[in-house]
Amino acid sequence: MSKSYDVVVIGGGPGGYVAAIRAAQNGLKTACVDNWENRDGSHAFGGTCLNAGCIPSKAVLESSELYHRAGHEFSEHGIKLSKPELDLDAMLKRKAGIVKQFTGGIAQLFKANKVDGIAGTGKLLKGNKVEVTAHGGGKKETLEAKHVILATGSTPVELPFAKFDGKRIVDSWDALEFEQVPKRLGVIGAGVIGLELGSVWSRLGSEVTMIEAQDKFLFMADQQIAKDAQRQFKKQGLDIKLGAKLVEAKAGKNDVKVVYEDKSGKHEATFDKLLISVGRRPYTDGLFGDDVKVDTDDRGFVKVDKQNRTSVKNVWAVGDCAPGPMLAHKASEEGVVVADLIAGKTAEMSHECIPSIIYTAPEVAWVGKTEEELKAEKVPYKVGSFGFAANGRAQAMNQAAGMVKMLAHKDSDEVLGVHIVGPMASELIAEAVLAMEFRASAEDIQLTIHAHPALGEVIHEAALAVDGKALHGVNR
């Protein structure tokens, strides 16, 4: 006899496990089926984010930044050290410990909230039944559900002429597991993942070359901020080639030979490792039974309405397998909304107020519209910007590069977008997200008292600059 649930979630990443917990909190009998498999064959909840993405990458980003600062900046603080010695094994062991702590924490949260966590691969069948193949290819069982939430996430895009081999040509997960620092690292794609991992290995001693097909650096970000960030990364030694397209990659025993093409012609390069980070695609392989027809678009994303309902009744989709930015926090919030809607509650989220962050040094973060978008949409706007160089806390931290840029409606003064390149941008952007959620005006932020000395004062000054009132710098 098959087990019956109110909700079955397929996928245990940030969208899936959060949806399962909230559904259970709402009094619904819930199961979460997840098929993540670690390199050693073991199972862990948390999906790409906790196992091979957000969490482990931030751990090595922090470690590599400390290593870099110890070797290049500590002396400016009056701290004299001999040349720092890198213990890569210890660095990666620390990373692995953090990952294990968080993935194990999900299992404990499931237990505390009475969610049935099931290690296995889920397949949606007709009538909202879910066929589960136990982890390791074991026996199959069928779960019956009143509602099914698809939260299967995404997987790296593989280039047909540069297939992953796990040794020389690698994906973002493998790039977190190098046993030694590559002397020459090639990175295909200068987006969020490429920049973060390129920064890690550059700090640890790699010569990093980034090959980006787009003519504009960080084309999705405000271009004033992007250009500022590009200057900082160039100073750090990242060789970023724009308008360059990889056309060939051949892995040998000891290196990878590549050919890329730009407006000046074809070029050859040789690397010890080649990271392919050209994007991710929705992971829906084997998700649907032959008797189920869930509408997907031409890129493989599961089509959903504004409340994340799919074309099949009582089947929902959240996170990376659904359209929208591939961000863990977007997935989690969608999971919460869907779980509440299933329980009959009123729930919604603002897709216009989802922050994006790149955890480099300096960090890059933004929310809302860019100046380019406002121009294209012919929205009347005013702009204010302020640099961290005039901020006492940033100078004390020796991290005074970068700026905050704020865009507000010219007539209503409503904040339309905030863009940051600078220290702790990932934390500072939260104020902007909250302001935009409440549809605050630039004047609202001007009238908000910010602590001194603090990095948040730069947001305050940028808001003042919107109306030409910046107190500690030249107004634009």
From TrEMBL:
Q: Which GO terms describe its molecular function?
A: dihydrolipoyl dehydrogenase (NADH) activity; flavin adenine dinucleotide binding
Subcellular location, principal: cytoplasm
Q: Which UniProt keywords apply?
A: Cytoplasm, Disulfide bond, FAD, Flavoprotein, NAD, Nucleotide-binding, Oxidoreductase, Redox-active center
GO CC annotation: cytoplasm
Q: Which cofactor does it need?
A: FAD
In this protein, which residues make up the domain named Pyridine nucleotide-disulphide oxidoreductase dimerisation? Answer: 354-463
Q: Which InterPro entries match?
A: Class-I_Pyr_Nuc-Dis_Oxidored, FAD/NAD-bd_sf, FAD/NAD-binding_dom, FAD/NAD-linked_Rdtase_dimer_sf, Lipoamide_DH, Pyr_nuc-diS_OxRdtase, Pyr_nucl-diS_OxRdtase_dimer, Pyr_OxRdtase_I_AS
E.C. number: 1.8.1.4
Membrane-spanning residues: none
Q: Which GO terms describe its biological process?
A: 2-oxoglutarate metabolic process
Highest taxon listed in the record's lineage: Bacteria
Entry cofactor note text? Binds 1 FAD per subunit.
Please list the residues that bind FAD: 58, 122, 152-154, 320, 326-329
Q: Which residues form the FAD/NAD(P)-binding domain?
A: 5-335
Q: Give the intrachain disulfide bonds.
A: 49-54
Q: Does the keyword Zinc apply?
A: no
Where NAD(+) binds, per the record, is at: 189-196, 212, 279
- Reactions the enzyme catalyzes: N(6)-[(R)-dihydrolipoyl]-L-lysyl-[protein] + NAD(+) = N(6)-[(R)-lipoyl]-L-lysyl-[protein] + NADH + H(+)
Q: Could you tell me which Pfam families the record lists for this protein?
A: Pyr_redox_2, Pyr_redox_dim
Q: What residues form the catalytic site here?
A: 452 (proton acceptor)
User: Where does this protein reside within or beyond the cell?
Assistant: Cytoplasm
Family membership noted in the UniProt record: Belongs to the class-I pyridine nucleotide-disulfide oxidoreductase family.
* PANTHER family, per database record: DIHYDROLIPOYL DEHYDROGENASE, DISULFIDE OXIDOREDUCTASE
| Other remarks on this protein | The active site is a redox-active disulfide bond.
Q: What is this protein called?
A: Dihydrolipoyl dehydrogenase
